[in-house]
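Margin note: ligand = aspartic acid.
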Amino acid sequence: MGKYTLAIHGGAGTITRTMLTQEVENDYKNALNLALIAGNDILKKGGIAADAVEAAVKVMEDSPLFNAGKGAVYSSEGTHEMECSIMCGKTLQAGAVAGIKLIKNPIALARKVLYDENFVYISGEGAEKYAQKYKLEFVENSYFDTPHRYEQWQAVKDTDLVLLDHDADNLVNDGKGGDYKFGTAGAVAMDSYGNLAAATSTGGLTNKKFGRLGDSSMIGGGTYANNKTCAISCTGYGEYFIRSVVAHDISCLMEYKGLSLKQACEYVVKDKLVKIGGEGGLCAVDSLGNIELCFNSEGMYRGQISSDDMKFHVAIYES
Ligand code: ASP
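Resulting structure:
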């Protein structure tokens, strides 16, 4: 069987050692490990990259620790509106969904769209109607509630502030002593056949208004996969990632300018994004299975596993 690799993130932002208790840090590391195990279980049996990234993201959607699925942030209406996307690097098929309120695992719906020839991106009630066709699990919107997310929202409710979850946590830390950090969930993989895939799922920004959408559901913005180059899943302030078309830009730098994955990721994340004030990061894998976990913020929940050493590596802080 050929080499395979899997990398994940659980959000990037102002995450420092002093902000996490040992217990919370361990909770995150355990959750990241579980996501890696889910993806690895598929890849080690010769499963495909799209299945592995879906499985890894699903684990993070089910965990209240991440801003995706259970634990998604609150919008200005006090509801949860989720979005996500998935892309297959071999076929360039993609599936994206947005404005999801009632589907337990939004990434499972995006996965159905991936194989649908009629469209790539669907939203709101229409998307949920489409989900019925596949008998995906429906839940009440309150299923996604978590006390800490509620606190984050209370700190900015009735203001015009919209916050990246980590910033919202700083606000809660300052005002109310909350200790938890949360984040968007993403995964990239190269399977043993050399095919790439990427998936990203989020609740978006705390207190978001007017049906605001981020990069996580935008193919080319927060998610992209192409066997010729790389698979990318981003996290951070979506507006900057959309304007910079980050995931596709990295692929283009590799395809048209011959940059390595590392060079392309570092240029986009640590130079281009920084110059316009875009905070965040990404997980990436290239067609040789090289992994990059690149961010310009203080931390990023992240992990990786490769068939080379079969060791689960997880990390949170910069060093
Ligand atoms: N990129 C996401 C958004 O803008 C947020 C995040 O990554 O935490 O919706």
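Residues 172-182 have pLDDT under 50 and may be disordered.
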